[in-house]
Write a structure and sequence with these properties.
This protein is an alpha+beta fold. It has one domain: Ribosome hibernation promotion factor-like (Double Stranded RNA Binding Domain, 2-Layer Sandwich), CATH 3.30.160.100. About 40% of the residues lie in helices and about 35% in strands. Strands 1-2-3-4 form a four-stranded mixed β-sheet, covered by helices on one side. It is elongated. The two termini are about 20 Å apart.
Length: about 100
């Protein structure tokens, strides 16, 4: 079973390079959560931040039969924010899987 992947962007474009980078990591999610049905990747760039830290927020949401697992991270660039959020998401999925066992 493959999960649906949804990209949402606000005040920022999501280049193909970012999509490819994210897709390389989807296997990990499917390994940890065999029942994952949907993944939403939301990338938001704060419009009013000039030189402040963390003006890009990446929010990852996995919908897993009856459960919703979220992780969010802010950074200066979308790749760094994605990596941090992805790490948090994997940790939460791991914990959920271990609880099920």
């Amino acid at each position: 079973m493959t999960m649906d992947v949804n990209y949402v962007a606000r005040n920022i474009a999501i280049p193909d390079r970012f999509r490819e980078y994210a897709e390389e990591k989807f296997d990990k999610i499917e390994q940890l959560s065999t029942r994952a049905q949907r993944l939403e990747i939301k990338v938001v760039k704060e419009a009013h931040h000039r030189h402040s830290e963390g003006n890009v927020t990446v929010e990852l949401t996995v919908v897993d039969k009856g459960k919703v697992i979220r992780a969010e991270s802010k950074a200066d660039d979308k790749f760094a924010a994605f990596d941090t959020a992805f790490g948090k998401l994997l940790e939460r999925l791991r914990r959920l899987r271990d609880r099920r066992k």
